Amino acid sequence: MYLAAKPPSGIIKSMRKVNLAVGEIYHIFNRGVDKRIIFNDQKDLERFFLSMVSFNSVEPVGSLYEQSFQKDKIKKPLVNFIAYNLLPNHFHFILEQVSEGGISEFMKRLQGGYTWYFNKKHKRSGSLFQGTFKSKHIDSNEYLLHLSAYINLNDKLGGLAAKLGKSSWQEYISLDKSFSKICVKKDIVLDQFDSKKDYEKFSLSSLEDIKSNKDRYKELEE
């Protein structure tokens, strides 16, 4: 199956703040306070990615060091990852809330833990992120498909991202099993296509549509 790249006409209207509900899917995003850089180097990026994995647990969690001794322990997640993109000064997630209050608790742990690490490493103090986080309810399948393409390929839209970034794109299109994986529910998107190659074609076509219709996607880009 290969879908046309044209986004649903109500894509911007559907991106409204709502109470976060179990079983629903959301676009979660945030950026550095005052648009500052939040990943200075590859080590920062990998630390944030490790935190995405380690802090996603219903049970209380300690430091990443403490968790290194519990690698084989099966944890019930707060959220399911569907897509993500980490860029130098902001990030995007598509998350399904699994547990009551799961997204809020996960984001509190993720941003709080990473801020502590970043401030200690770079000898600074104060907030690193612009508030708690932003959330938009994904209330249609069309929206989900196009948003997955937008997030997976977001680093192709700006020159800043090309210097340093990490996304779920390879998890979607590659058969290589050697790299780290975190998207446990990407099949909710991929199962709607006959092959990974078809999804790749759809996503690249959607990207061209985003580039040529930036006003339509203004809220996404902001």
Structure explained in plain terms:
The chain is α+β, with helices and mostly antiparallel strands and 222 residues long. It has one domain (25-221): Alpha-Beta Plaits, CATH 3.30.70.1290. Helices cover 38% and strands 13% of the residues. It contains 9 helices and 5 strands, in the order E-H-H-E-E-H-E-H-H-E-H-H-H-H. It has helices spanning 42-54, 64-67, 102-122, 141-152, 159-163, 169-173, 187-190, 196-212, 218-221, and strands at residues 25-31, 79-86, 90-97, 134-137, 166-167. The protein has a 5-stranded antiparallel sheet with strand order 4-1-3-2-5. Strand 2 (79-86) and strand 3 form a beta hairpin. Helix 1 runs antiparallel to helix 3. The longest helix has 21 residues, at 102-122. The radius of gyration is 17 Å and the shape is globular.
Summarize the structure.
This protein is an alpha+beta fold and 222 residues long. It has a single domain, classed as Alpha-Beta Plaits, CATH 3.30.70. It has 9 helices and 5 strands, in the order βααββαβααβαααα.
Tag the structure with descriptive keywords.
single chain, 222 residues, Alpha-Beta Plaits, 5-stranded antiparallel beta sheet, globular, disordered N terminus
Summed up, the helix count is 9
Kindly state the number of beta strands: 5
- CATH homologous superfamily assignment: Transposase IS200-like
Radius of gyration: 17 Å
CATH architecture: 2-Layer Sandwich
Mean pLDDT over the full residue set: 83
Cα(first) to Cα(last) distance is 31 Å
Q: Which ranges are low-confidence, i.e. pLDDT below 50, for 5 or more consecutive residues?
A: 1-18
In CATH, the topology is named Alpha-Beta Plaits
- Any idea of the CATH class? Alpha Beta
The structural class is alpha+beta
Give the oligomeric state.
single chain
The main sheet orders its strands as 4-1-3-2-5
Strand portion, in percent? 5-15%
* Mass-distribution shape: globular
